[in-house]
Amino acid sequence: MINNIEVCPHCNIKMELKTAPYSDNGKIIGDFEAYVCPSCNRVFYTDNGYKELTKYIMKKR
Ligand SMILES: [Zn+2]
Is residue 11 part of a domain? Predict the structure, then answer.
């Protein structure tokens, strides 16, 4: 599978499933489920995390 979200495309190593804070205009709006690369610290939100994230953003408007 080419689109393996669990593997960092930059480092080609397995990422850790945890939560990552998301900030909007410099304001942190919450922690969301995401894969975080232990090497380059890139954050890739999971489908779940992204869904929650969208909910928060919608609520604000
Ligand atoms: Zn990486």
Answer: no
